[in-house]
């Protein structure tokens, strides 16, 4: 069985008990999606699973979402190999996955939808066809056993599958979790519908203009600016070129560790 490799990141998430609040107005710039982002055709890959013996084993991951149950992703998640992970850009994207080619183990007529939340690191001590499941150039998904068993019998282990990227459907609005300290502000962007992955983010205080944020890791975006005691607005752009602006998402008295909810793509 392939164990899911969690990317160890030297940053601290400041959201142990997120408080989701909603303070927004919004305006989307577009509702069209790029044909290169979503796929109608199925592509070949393989999948393995992991069965966590402790709930902490499935918390977080290389995309930085923290507790996947609390943040709404649950067990419908996947760790992706290097060729799919795209250095973390793919975090938040959604895929439909189905089992193929093995009538002994596949559950016919079934598929699952998963969100990319983690990275399956390569193991160069093994050949790509001899244990190095996530080594380039392999397209590989590592699924929680709860998701794997919806499409195949668990004894199948390393299964041939097909996948295609699809639009994400999420309950509620995009969530912005405030982390950092002092003038360092880190914002985790999660629960993103549509393309699911964010390629650019900006933030605006009531006393500032729009300030571009840099990608820290996964879907954590950061900026060095003193934005305390100001209501905050966010502008995010997804990989299909759609920009969503949510005004006054966080109130003037926002604090580190809180989570606020903006409008949603496609709503």
Automatic annotation (TrEMBL):
InterPro entries reported for this sequence: Expan_Lol_pI (IPR007118), Expansin (IPR002963), Expansin/allergen_DPBB_dom (IPR007112), Expansin_CBD (IPR007117), Expansin_CBD_sf (IPR036749), RlpA-like_DPBB (IPR009009), RlpA-like_sf (IPR036908)
Annotated Gene3D superfamilies: Expansin, cellulose-binding-like domain, RlpA-like domain
Domain Expansin-like EG45: from-to ranges: 60-173
Topology in membrane: Peripheral membrane protein
Compartments, record wording: Secreted, Cell wall; Membrane
SMART domains membership: DPBB_1 (SM00837)
The keyword Signal is assigned to this record: yes
Any Pfam family hit: DPBB_1
Keywords tagged on the record: Cell wall, Cell wall biogenesis/degradation, Membrane, Secreted, Signal
Segments forming a coiled coil: none
GO cellular component term of the entry, any: membrane
GO biological process terms on file: anatomical structure morphogenesis; plant-type cell wall organization
Claim: Cell wall biogenesis/degradation is one of the keywords in the record: yes
Domain spans labelled Expansin-like CBD: 183-262
Range of residues in the leader sequence: 1-22
Record's function text: Causes loosening and extension of plant cell walls by disrupting non-covalent bonding between cellulose microfibrils and matrix glucans. No enzymatic activity has been found.
Similarity comment text for this entry: Belongs to the expansin family. Expansin A subfamily.
Annotated protein name in UniProt: Expansin
Organism (species): Nicotiana attenuata (Coyote tobacco)
């Amino acid at each position: 069985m392939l164990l899911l490799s969690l990317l160890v990141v030297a940053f601290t998430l400041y959201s142990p008990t997120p408080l989701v609040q909603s303070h927004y107005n919004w305006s989307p710039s577009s509702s069209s999606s790029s044909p290169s982002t979503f796929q109608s055709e199925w592509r070949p890959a393989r999948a393995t699973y992991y069965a966590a013996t402790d709930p902490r084993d499935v918390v977080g991951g290389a995309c930085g979402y923290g507790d996947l149950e609390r943040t709404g992703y649950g067990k419908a998640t996947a760790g992706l190999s290097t060729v799919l992970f795209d250095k973390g850009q793919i975090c938040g994207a959604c895929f439909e996955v189905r089992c193929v080619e093995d009538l002994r183990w596949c559950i016919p007529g079934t598929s699952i939808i998963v969100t990319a939340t983690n990275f399956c690191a390569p193991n160069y001590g093994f050949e790509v066809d001899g244990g190095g499941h996530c080594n380039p150039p392999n397209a590989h998904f590592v699924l929680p056993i709860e998701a794997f068993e919806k499409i195949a019998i668990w004894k199948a282990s390393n299964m041939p599958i097909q996948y295609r990227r699809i639009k994400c459907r999420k309950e509620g609005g995009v969530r912005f979790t405030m982390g950092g300290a002092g003038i360092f502000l880190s914002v985790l962007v999660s629960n993103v519908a549509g393309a699911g992955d964010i390629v650019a983010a900006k933030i605006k205080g009531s006393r500032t203009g729009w300030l571009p944020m840099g990608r820290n890791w996964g879907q954590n975006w950061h900026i060095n600016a003193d934005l305390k005691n100001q209501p905050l607005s966010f502008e995010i752009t997804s990989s299909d070129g759609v920009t969503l602006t949510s005004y006054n998402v966080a109130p003037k008295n926002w604090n580190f560790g809180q989570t606020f909810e903006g409008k949603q793509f496609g709503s």
